[in-house]
Every structure is written in C-alpha cells, then in structure tokens.
UniProtKB/TrEMBL annotation:
Residues 1-39 are annotated as: Disordered. The keyword Transmembrane applies. This is Uncharacterized protein DUF3159. The chain crosses the membrane at residues 48-68, 74-91, 98-115, 127-147, 167-189, 201-225. Keywords: Membrane, Transmembrane, Transmembrane helix. It comes from Pseudonocardia endophytica.
Length: 236
C-alpha cells in the first residue's frame, strides 16, 4: 500500500501562536506566553493624552508668569513646572521619557532666554527646530523619499518597499507636504511675532500652533494613507 502523503496543512508549517489566546486578548495587551513585542503607537510614544497636555504646562506657565512678573521668575517657574511634570509621571508610574525630553527642552529654551536677556529668546529654539523640520520635510518630498512614509514604515518595521507603489508614494508625498506646510506656518507666524518682539502673542501662538496643529497633521496623514490603501485594495 502506498503510504499517505505527508500532512502539508498550514497547522504543520506554521507555529500555533495565532490560535487561541492571541485572538482573545485585547489589542493593547500581549497574550500570556507571547514574547512578540507590540510596536507602540505614535500617541503612546508621546506619553498619551496626559503626556501631551503635561508637555504644554511649562510653556503656559512661562507665558503667564512673564506677563505677571518678569523674565527671571518666569524662567524659574517654567523649569519648576517641568520638574513637577516629571515627578507627577514618576508617581503615576507613567513613561517618563516625554517628561524628560520636555524638561530638557525647557532647560534649553530658558538658557537661550537668559543669555539673550529677552523673553522672546525662550521661543527661539522651537522656532529654529520647526524651520529645520520644515526644510527636511520639503527636501524629502523633492527627492521622492517623503518623510511621513519613511518614519511610519520605519517605526513599524515594514521596510521601505512602499516607495515602489505609486499610490502609496503619492499619498505619503501629500501627507509630508502637509507637515511641511505646518512647520512653515509656525515659522512664518511666530517669526513675524518674534521680529515684532510681541512676547505674549508669541507665547500664545506657540501654544496654539503646537499640538493642535500637530493633531490636524496627524489626522490628515491617517485619512490620506487610509484612502490610498483602500484604493490599492479595490484595484488588487
């Protein structure tokens, strides 16, 4: 009698990790015994909504204290607010990297303001950083390596093969162009206020054009990419 052919079903060729616990687990929790690390979302890397809100506290404190008093008390108040945010996240056992980064940023801004002797110096590092990011985003579009796609696929470990897909390349080009526009808007508006030495308005613009505009850019990126992916799926 001829022996039966070897079992070549998917269950013998692939591990069984996809069965059972993985499907029952919530998306944000890895199933018991699964050692695969889940890639944190962009929001999680920024410390979640509390992290985003907390990161604006030092700037807000600086603006208010500078209006009420003067530069030196405002600088110390901003640094103190950054330290309190860090302690608060430590007590809550939240990721502290966003708080540490924010504290370092506040320290650099305070140093520049102290050296220049002007409150507007507090906003100069952020202004220069936005200009740098805007140039990088624009150059990435020109050389057909749109930054939105490079970062997204780099974070998720998907490689850069998406550049061979004209639909995705076009989508990420549009998304990166939006980011370039956001950075350019910051530079133009805040740069004009910086030149006019309108310190209070400059602080307000810094807050208004910070995470609110960032949220708009993220939402636009998601919508553009999802539409491109649906278009690819429909023509596949």
């Amino acid at each position: 009698m001829t022996p039966p052919p070897p079992d070549d079903t998917p269950t013998t060729r692939f591990p069984r990790v996809e069965d059972g616990p993985r499907h029952a687990a919530r998306p944000e929790q890895a199933p018991e015994g699964d050692t695969t690390e889940r890639t944190p979302t962009l929001l999680e890397q920024m410390g979640g909504v509390p992290g985003i809100v907390a990161s604006t506290v030092p700037v807000l404190v600086f603006v208010v204290v500078n209006v009420i008093t003067s530069l030196t008390p405002a600088l110390w108040a901003a640094i103190g607010a950054g330290v309190l945010v860090l302690v608060w996240r430590l007590v809550r056992k939240d990721p502290i990297q966003p708080a540490i980064s924010g504290l370092i940023g506040v320290g650099v801004c305070a140093l520049v303001a102290n050296q220049t002797g002007e409150a507007r110096g507090f906003y100069l590092p952020g202004l220069l950083y936005s200009a740098f990011l805007g140039v990088v985003a624009l150059v990435s579009v020109v050389v057909r390596w749109p930054l939105a796609g490079v970062i997204w696929h780099g974070i998720n470990g998907h490689g850069q093969g998406w550049r061979q897909d004209p639909v995705l390349l076009r989508a990420y080009t549009w998304a990166t162009s939006i980011w370039a526009f956001v950075f350019a808007a910051r530079v133009v508006v805040q740069g004009l206020l910086y030149g006019e030495n309108a310190e209070t308005l400059l602080g307000i613009a810094r807050l208004a054009m910070g995470y609110p505009l960032l949220g708009v850019a993220i939402l636009a990126t998601v919508l553009i990419v999802r539409r491109a992916e649906r278009s690819r799926a429909a023509t596949a």
